[in-house]
């Protein structure tokens, strides 16, 4: 069986390769950065226009009070679950193949949460009155409703974002010390010196580091589950047809892990090429990630079927009508595209020859995420277009270009943050890769000795 | 008597392990085994075990943080609801337990994470100034053994270091 990583790679070589990525990426890096800036610029332009003219330009109306902004908010929250999956869940399961790729997944978590947070503000429209939502007693009687999942959302996302940033930072301290010790003097060295906190790799530091990392990982898993369950509660706890489904929280969590894994594949392929990480982001690791994604895709498909069946057999005519409308009404092309991208395309991942085929996997991962974005849109908009009361039906509403522009811009914003992060901080964990190489080479030696002994 | 510091660098964990074993068994006058510090590019349970019982107390911070976070959240939210937000809503209780438990749960985690990190910084002695006996090679591929001992013990310890193929020995006197 092909090995996840070359075991005889020296520790000094690992440092050298990763540190090189901070200074000398391929030209494609700058192309991606330029495209991201342009895409982000479109989003900023649309937001400035909406800010000046008013939320009406988004074409949000009654009954379509939530549109692409909230759908995209859920999409980015979902994307953030990949970091927790790779860092925390696989860490607890001792899956050491995650080591070369978990750092960028953690960064993805942080930046996708930051992007999601922006959509709450964009959706509010009146940014300058954001403080109305802050929980403090005041004479406007706008003290928030603690029984609303929207407030739980704010609390859960704040907890998740701050814990993710802390988790990312703590896990990076030994690597920041490596950067401090081995880079030439300049602003980078000063930055790493401050951020490394004087780490020297003493037994006392490692011992406490190990316990801390494990503890925060243990906290992050239930936190990630709670965050997306609460986001699901925004819908499931309402009385709207199509949303009032018990299986929504696990369905959302599965969807989140799914889109996160698909995004990991996309970024894996990009980083592998751009930063010349072929030695670390290897094809066997890609294969494992692809298999994991396929398994989660099937869980998501199963939960989708459960959701449809629950609605179909619930004797709730309004919910049934929404489901029929999704499949046959004006949203049908997008709903069927969601089913195709989310449940049919992943079957490509079943074939061994495609699991390590980079162009195919790149295309598949993009399609999976397209499907997952459509899923969020198909949760939000069809229900609003076909509610309980026929006089509120509005099947012809279409999001304005301003909405599309801001959604488009969010991808530029995320890419920009992510690519800058990967250029400033090591996107492959050097000390964890060293551990992986060390333990695997020790295991190989042990096996060899045992084999000799047997003969 | 003045205290000296010595840092020896080794190529691999096996050599470092042998040195630690020998220093532990030697019972050198003027050197306390607790004053030995291992510096390494990765954590190594085997060698750390040789150093004996050196506990990590971060978990106590975690416990305190999580309990404080959860209880303060519940007390804070429920007392605010009872005092500032006493709007009756359809016969529902003023302090609704199930929704408050969700917020308590989030704050339980938030408190746990924040105080764990604080505990880590305290227990690991961070942030710290880098010691003068430090080699950048430790963050690359070499294992360092740092000891603090009386001047009288230094020559014996140096001999132990040298016997196990130390790549480099750094010394700092007078502290």
| Low-confidence runs of chain A | none
Query: What structural category arises from helix and sheet content of chain A?
Result: mainly alpha
Order of helices and strands of chain A: HHHHHHHHHHHHHHHH
Radius of gyration of chain B (CA) equals: 25 Å
Backbone shape of chain A: globular
Give the amount of beta strand of chain B, in percent. Answer: 15-25%
Rg over CA atoms of chain A: 23 Å
Bin the strand percentage of chain A. Answer: under 5%
* Domains of chain B (count): 2
Distance between the amino and carboxyl termini of chain B:
10 Å
Mean pLDDT of chain A: 90
Total helical elements of chain B: 5
The CATH superfamily label of the largest domain in chain B reads ACT domain
| Total DSSP E strands of chain A | 0
The largest β sheet of chain A comes out as:
none
The end-to-end distance of chain A, rounded to whole angstroms, is 23 Å
CATH class of the largest domain in chain B: Alpha Beta
Task: List unreliable stretches of 5+ residues of chain B.
Answer: none
Helix fraction of chain A by DSSP (H/I, runs of at least 4): over 70%
């Amino acid at each position: 069986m092909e090995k996840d990583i070359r075991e005889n790679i020296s520790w000094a070589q690992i440092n050298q390769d990763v540190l090189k990525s901070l200074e000398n990426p391929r030209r494609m890096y700058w192309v991606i950065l330029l495209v991201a800036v342009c895409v982000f610029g479109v989003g900023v332009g649309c937001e400035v226009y909406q800010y000046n003219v008013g939320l009406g330009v988004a074409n949000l109306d009654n009954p379509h009070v939530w549109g692409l902004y909230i759908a995209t908010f859920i999409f980015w929250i979902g994307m953030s679950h990949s970091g927790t999956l790779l860092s925390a869940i696989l860490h607890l399961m001792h899956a050491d193949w995650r080591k070369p790729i978990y750092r960028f997944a953690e960064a993805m978590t942080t930046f996708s949460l930051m992007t999601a947070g922006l959509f709450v503000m964009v959706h509010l429209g009146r940014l300058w009155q954001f403080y109305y939502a802050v929980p403090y007693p005041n004479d406007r009687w706008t003290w928030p409703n603690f029984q609303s999942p929207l407030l739980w959302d704010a609390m859960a996302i704040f907890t998740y974002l701050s814990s993710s940033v802390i988790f990312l930072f703590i896990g990076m301290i030994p690597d920041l010390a490596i950067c401090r010790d081995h880079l030439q003097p300049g602003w980078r060295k000063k930055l790493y010196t401050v951020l490394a906190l004087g780490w020297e790799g003493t037994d006392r530091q490692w011992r406490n580091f190990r316990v801390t990392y494990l503890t925060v990982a243990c906290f992050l898993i239930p936190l990630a589950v709670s965050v997306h369950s609460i986001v699901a509660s925004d819908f499931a706890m309402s009385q709207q047809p199509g949303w009032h489904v018990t299986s929504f929280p696990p369905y959302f969590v599965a969807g989140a892990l799914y889109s996160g894994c698909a995004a990991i594949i996309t970024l894996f392929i990009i980083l592998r090429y751009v930063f010349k990480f072929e030695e670390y982001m290897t094809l066997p690791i890609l294969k494992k990630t692809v298999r994991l994604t396929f398994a989660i895709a099937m869980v998501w498909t199963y939960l989708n079927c459960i959701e449809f069946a629950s609605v179909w057999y619930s004797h709730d005519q309004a919910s049934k009508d929404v489901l029929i409308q999704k499949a046959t009404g004006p949203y049908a092309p997008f709903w069927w595209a969601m089913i195709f991208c989310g449940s049919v395309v992943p079957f490509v991942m079943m074939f061994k020859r495609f699991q390590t085929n980079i162009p195919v996997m790149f295309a598949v991962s993009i399609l999976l995420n397209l499907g997952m974005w459509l899923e969020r849109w198909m949760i939000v908009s069809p229900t609003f277009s076909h509610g309980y009361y026929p006089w509120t039906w509005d099947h012809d509403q279409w999001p304005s270009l301003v909405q599309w522009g801001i959604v488009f811009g969010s991808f530029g914003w995320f890419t920009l943050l992510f690519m800058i992060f990967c250029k400033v901080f090591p996107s492959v964990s050097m000390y964890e890769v060293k551990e992986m190489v060390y333990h695997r080479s020790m295991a190989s030696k042990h096996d060899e000795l045992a084999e000799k002994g047997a003969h | 008597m003045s205290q000296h510091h010595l840092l020896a660098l080794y190529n691999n964990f096996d050599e470092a392990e042998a040195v630690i074993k020998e220093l532990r068994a030697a019972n050198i006058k003027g050197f306390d085994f607790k004053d030995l510090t291992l510096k390494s590019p990765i954590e190594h349970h085997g060698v750390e075990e040789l150093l004996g019982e050196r506990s990590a107390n971060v978990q106590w911070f975690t416990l305190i943080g999580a309990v404080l976070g959860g209880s303060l959240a519940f007390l804070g939210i429920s007392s605010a609801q009872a005092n500032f937000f006493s709007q009756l809503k359809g016969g529902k209780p003023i302090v609704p337990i199930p929704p408050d438990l969700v917020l308590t749960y989030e704050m339980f985690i938030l408190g746990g994470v924040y105080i764990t990190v604080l505990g880590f910084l305290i227990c690991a002695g961070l942030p710290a100034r880098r010691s003068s006996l430090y080699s950048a090679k430790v963050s690359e591929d070499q294992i360092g053994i740092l000891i603090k001992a009386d001047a009288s013990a230094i020559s014996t310890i140096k001999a132990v270091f040298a016997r196990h193929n130390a790549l480099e020995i750094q010394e700092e006197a007078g502290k």
